[in-house]
Amino acid sequence: MELRIAVQLERSYSRRELFTIFANRAWFGDGQVGVEDASQHFFHKEPEQLEVAEAALLAGLIRAPAYFSPFTHPDRALQRRNEVISAMVDAHAITVGDGEAAKATILGVEARSSR
Fold first, then answer.
1. What local confidence, expressed as pLDDT, does residue 112 receive?
2. What is the CATH number of domain 27-103?
3. What is the band of 110 on the pLDDT scale with cuts at 50, 70, 90?
4. Which one of 73, 94, 98, 114 is at 20 to 30 Å from 54 when CA atoms are compared?
5. Where are the domains of the chain?
6. What pLDDT score does 115 carry?
7. How far apart are CA 54 and CA 81, in angstroms?
8. Nearest to 76 by CA among 86, 90, 63, 91
9. d(CA 73, CA 51)
């Protein structure tokens, strides 16, 4: 059953479209659903304004948002972010130099102040 649904989805949508659907419905923790909400919540930016390290942090959160929360477990979040950056280098999505520069940055998350 699941295989049939997967085949139907692949026939109906491009990989980019499928990823967009997934990314807009993914749970990022802290009550955030979707890349837009997560980008605003963690970095106070639009997704297209994210730096490599910031995008990698968000991508890494999807696996286990509470476990890798940069607010409660910054050490785990940093390690996971760097794993994602290494995977981006391995996939030739970014250069080795860009990967090293991204890994050298701080997490840069800032909790929104409660009003």
1. 58
2. 1.10.3810.10
3. confident
4. 114
5. 27-103
6. 40
7. 8
8. 63
9. 21
Q: What's the rounded Cα separation, in Å, for the pair 42 and 68?
A: 13
Stretch 17-25: mean pLDDT: 89
CB 54 within 8 A of CB 43: yes
Q: State the DSSP code for 96.
A: H
Question: Which of 42, 45, 47, 52 shows the shortest CA–CA distance to 89?
Answer: 52
**Residues 17 and 40 sit within 8 Å (Cβ to Cβ):** no
What would the DSSP string read from start to end of 77-91?
A: HHHHHHHHHHHHHHT
The band of 7, judged by pLDDT with boundaries at 50, 70 and 90, is: confident
Residue type, 66: A
- Rounded to whole angstroms, the Cα distance separating 57 from 69 reads 10
